Amino acid sequence: MKNQNKHIDLSKISKELPFRVPDNYFEELPEKIQVRCKEAEQTEQNGNSLIKILKPAFSLAAMFIGVALLAFFAVNIISDSGQKQNSLSEDIAKVNYEEQYSSEEEMIKAIQEQQENNEMNNEKADEYIDYLLEDDIDYGTLIKELEAEEQDSSNK
Which contiguous run of DSSP H or E holds residue 118? Predict the structure, then answer.
């Protein structure tokens, strides 16, 4: 605190600048800058020419891979949700089917009846095929006969 009260006499400070510019600095400066710029351009051209050529190709390939991955995941998500809905409806149908029967014997009888019906349907299909081969009938007539037989069997 004692030094704060002292006054500085400006007349004692010299007018000479403490810093100096080296000799021929401004004459040599443009040449030094040009040499360094040329060196930087040569190293940039030598090292980065391959990178400059391949950079657009890599970015394009990365874009295609990204789009392909997005499409793949979108398709998987959509198909998974459809499969879950189908499996859920199948599970519900199985539960409803199994609840119809109070014992295993009834369920076995129902399965045997289904198998017999399938065998009868196969026999009918064989009869139709033989009939078509013998009489050379077109598909339209066959469909009409099948629809008529289905209506007859559902009415019984």
Answer: helix 104-135
**CA distance linking residue 99 with residue 110, whole number of Å:** 13
* CA 51 – CA 56 distance, rounded (Å): 9
Cα(2)–Cα(94) distance, rounded to whole angstroms?
102
| 103-153 tens-digit pLDDT | 777 778 878 888 888 888 888 888 877 877 787 777 777 778 778 888 887
Owner of token pair 């199948």: 90
**What letter would DSSP give residue 136?**
T
In whole angstroms, what is the distance from residue 108 CA to residue 106 CA? 5
H-helix or E-strand containing 35? helix 25-99
Q: Are 101 and 107 in contact (CB under 8 A)?
A: yes
CA 104 to chain CA centroid, Å, is: 47
104 and 111 Cβ atoms separated by less than 8 Å: no
pTM for this predicted structure:
0.29
Distances from the Cα of 43 to the Cαs of 35, 37, 52, 77, 117, in angstroms?
Answer: 13, 10, 14, 50, 86
The tens digit of pLDDT for each residue in 32-57 reads: 999 999 888 877 666 666 777 788 88
